[in-house]
Amino acid sequence: MSYTAPQDLGKYAFFRALRPFSFPVALVTCLIGILLAAQQQWIDPVEAVMVLIGGVLLQAGVNLINDHADIKLLRQQSQDGRRIEAIRRNFRVGMLCFLLAAAIGFHFVIERGLGFLLLCLLGLIGALGYTVSPINYKNRGLGVILVFWLMGVLMIAGSAVALGASISLALALHTLPVSLLVSLLLLSNELRDYETDRRDGLQTLAVKIGYQPAVRIYFGLMAAAYLVVALLMALGLLPGAFWLLLSLPLALKPVGLLQAPAGQRGPLTPATARLLLGFGVLFCVALADPWPLSV
User: Fold this and answer.
1) Is residue 197 within 8 Å of residue 207, measured between CB atoms?
2) Which end of the chain is more exposed for a tag (fewer CB within 10 A), N or C?
């Protein structure tokens, strides 16, 4: 049997499919949930670490099953079986990540009850339905909406509830800013790959509505994140909101890349990821800072 070098597999090579650069997304969203729980009560540091590990495992699982729907496309293109087998291998490892995350989740189900179990089931069903047929939200143009809920709102709220926090309107509002930027990150990926996705018949949101309308949504999501922060400050829920102004320079590069030619748009997603990470870290600072800049 001949050896297939990882580069021959393209984006289906394991490390590329794992997308470790996205792990800070899970760490930031889980950390926000931990800080929100800490505002309500004392939290166990060991359980906080378990939440972080579980979040990274979920992110890894979602990344690894992300390309499963491409099997049908590769068969139509008469591709050899190496890439299809790589996708299947990644899918199996992704399911293992979900299983390990479920084991961590089971501990919190025992601690918190059936309400937390419901959150876990919603997250698992949504994660599997993202790319797995017959649901396949990604190819229905719904990926940007789904990651807002799955990797944003549910990840933050679930982390807080796992550590004993109660769901409230204030907690729900705190989940929104970073969740909007999680959607922004996925949309940046769709904009970066717009031409190739359209050529390959992938029905992402950007392909369905067109490039320029998707760019307008990009600006809308970015603006909405900062507007919700302003709302939280006005309501007295985030007195350290001025910290978030330090993230604005990180928005300059991705905004400048939106109108770049297809061949020069590659840095758009990493630049958006840096904005998300910087914004998320500063959001955590705003939550934890006892002497906010807004005072």
Assistant:
1) yes
2) N
